[in-house]
Amino acid sequence: MGDLAIRPATADDVAAIVAMLADDPLGAQRESPDDLTPYLTALERLASDPNQHLVVAVREGRVVGTLQLTVIPGLSRRGTVRSIIEGVRIHADERGSGLGTQLIDWAIDESRRQGCQLVQLTSDNTRTDAHRFYERLGFTASHVGFKLQL
To answer: In 3-state terms, what secondary structure has residue 102?
Structure first.
């Protein structure tokens, strides 16, 4: 499969990231691969925040995966620092290759390096395959999540 590098995302990676975000039934409804402007603006904001880590997995010069890791200091749990994993996507050609596990392992290792004691993630109720994947990696479905669209 070739060597894999996980590195911070750059503006040159945005089209590939958005294509992966749009490559499923949920993403197809909410992403706009034809207009990268809002994504490039978001990348600038992410890059300026030291608690945000948008990364890509690159194999043989091609972006094949992505995720965002957010580090959140807090007061609860005796001042626990936690991280949140979001936007995990694997290119269709790479699904089932172990790349998802490698990306999540990277996020967990980076969370430890950042001083986190807890890693969290959310997954849409309809993503049952993803739920099984996260459970295999040791995550537990311990909370109910709520969202409010603004």
So the answer is: helix
